[in-house]
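ok here's Pectate lyase superfamily protein domain-containing protein, seq below lol
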Amino acid sequence: MKISYLFAKGILCATSAFAITASAGAQDIATDLPDILSDDADAPYLPDFSYAGYGYGLEPIPNVSRVIDVADYGAMPDDGVDDSAGLKAAVAAAAEIGGPVRVQLAAGRYHLTEILWIESDGIVLAGMGSGEGGTELHMPRPLNQVDDGGALDEVRVYLERYDKRERQPENNLDVLFSEYSWSGGFVWARYPGGRHATYLEEMDRPIETVTEIASGTVGERQLTVADASALSVGDVLQIHWHNRAGENGPLIAEIYGEDRSAFPVGSRHWEFPDRPLVRQATRIDSISGNSVTIADPLLHDISDALPAYFARWDHLSEVGIQDIAFIFPENPYFGHHNESGFNAIYFTGVHNGWISNLRIENADSGVLTDDLANVTIANVRTEGDHTAHYSVHIGNVHNVLVTGNEVFNPTVHTFSFNTQSTKSVYQRSTGWTDPTLDQHAGANHQNLYDQVSVHVRPDSETDTGVPSYDLFRAGGAGYWKPGHGRYNTIWNLEVIALGGVAPDQPFRILEASGGPDARVIGMAGNRELLLDYTPAPYTEDLNARQVNVPSLYDYQLSRRR
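and the structure came out like this:
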């Protein structure tokens, strides 16, 4: 069953929507193939999301058999002794040997009071499981009491220089943002000397251009370069697009469309023309003359009007963290952007890596990301009463797959597509406590929520008395608005009303800060749903479960196979 909604000035009119959908059943099933998946040339554009994850979606996470036992370096579980030195020594020994190598922890509890740096290819930090009888890493104090060796000094200077503050007059709170709100972790992967997030212009480094790209078409893998002599099959590079043409440049049109009258585009999109506005990390798969095939489809066209080039990208590969519980003590919540740094993992500068089978308790953030490509984050459960900023965060990344993320703890941003994230996916994940689908602003585009389930209670009512929930309440500074670029997609979203909505009442789901050309296919729950999304998205199968294609990611991946 397909339902068309009425829109007024780009905003869904709740009363009109109710008139249209009152007879639809919340458990309706859509068995036909959505029009958007048609091979017809006139079908709306839909990105191919199946390249997200380890091995561009086609390769399983490897089982690394060469092992270093942390006990050989003095780290013993359940002895009440700080294990930081032993764990660091074991990781250093693994780096000396060279990967792939598994740094293996036994069952039981280890104590970690320093940052455990992973700065070499092929290192896998592994426990014996994240549940009962498994491995626990216990961090008794936050990162603001730990020496990071100056790793976050740039963001500290940035916050102070630009007076980035959390101001809550009603709570008598006026403090600088914490550098740990979106950065840092007790297990921290990074390329040595890498600068995986940029804040201060005077610290910008020269970009090493490998070769200019002459032409390419969005959604295709073939492109033409000016000179292929500097390229080799297997190279992993970044494609950079810059906006050097100001507020109305062609790259702005690529990201947000030609008609931007319905929403503002923030100034950060043109204030730093020497920084790439869009980056796509990819691998060179074949070279024939000046024709090059890359591993995943182009995010945007490349032409004289929309130039791009291959740039060097310093990164790690084959890094993994798996089968561990990260346990923080019960700790007070000091408010948004005022986190003390109970962060489990900061995963940065990695291509082809993974995080899997984790339980994270009482964290400020479970997993934070930066400067990644083709990483799988699977089966991460976050829990506890402490309010977290993020559970598993996707930001400044390309082709990252988060699957099986169970979020039981309260979070400010539950499932977050953050600044400059592209072609990434949250799949088969569930938010249990006031969840949000956070499209955070900042040139994030072509991302997918796929088979996500949220359990919610109404937080407001419209003037017509319709219960409402601001599911897409989002962050992001005004200079990075709107909430997202073109083609962010929501596929088979399940919304379960836990209370506050009568069986015969409609339930309004709000996205008040979105972006253009969103796709919403399949959205249903235990109540009649009204979608209020600004600007108006392309929709199919609202108030119906799409059972013919339950997962868009899986469907597109199966077609590639």
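fwiw The chain has a mean pLDDT of 93. kinda neat tbh
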